[in-house]
Amino acid sequence: MSPVDRPASDLTVRARIRDAALAQFAERGFAGASMRGIAEAARVSLGAVQHHFTSKEALREACDAHVVETFGHRLTRSAADGTLGEPNLMARLYDTSGPLLRYLARALVDGSPAAATVFDRLSAEAEAFLSQTWPDRFPAGSPTARHTAAVMAAMHGGTIVLHDHLARQMGSDPLDRPHTTRIGGAMLDLYAAMGEFATSPTAQRIKDSTADYDAPDRRPR
Q1: Tell me: the pLDDT tens digits for 60-73?
Q2: pTM (2 decimals)?
Q3: What are the φ/ψ torsions at residue 57 (nearest 5 degrees)?
Q4: What class has domain 1-54?
Q5: Cα distance between residue 122 and residue 130, in whole Å
Q6: What counts of helices (H) and strands (E) characterise the chain?
């Protein structure tokens, strides 16, 4: 029976199990989570979990698909309303996707396929934003645009993976909804300062030194 053909009550049970699995995988990792623990968290029997998801791997695949679909939708919507690539994009995602981001944080460390898919989507959308906003600096399809977008995605994704360390420095977990705006505010301050620094003599010297280092006849052998 396909998901579309399932009765609403059945879908509700599946969603409850999936959400419990998201939390368990985020907290314990894939290896540390168990089908029994997921059943207890979802308040269903182990048999119910096995009925809807035949294995722990099948559960992870369902969680991965849910994360990819949800973030893909949010990225598409952000691209449509012109907010994609803004420093507070991740804060907006935090505000509505806390449990998914905690799962994604663990997935980025554990190497789940969902992490790679979400990162690649974020990079691709960021590349489109950069090329459309600054076509001369980031020509569409160029290595410069692709590499810059990937670094941008890594910077924002890093705040997810390192949220425990951010919590220690900020005094609160940035993945908790009441504190999500702290990431956006800090990113805005950082981007503003870096914009000023980018035009400074020091930044120009760094660029010149990098270009000199990258010259084929100057690279260390």
Answers
A1: 989 988 887 777 66
A2: 0.66
A3: -65, -40
A4: mainly alpha
A5: 12
A6: 10, 0
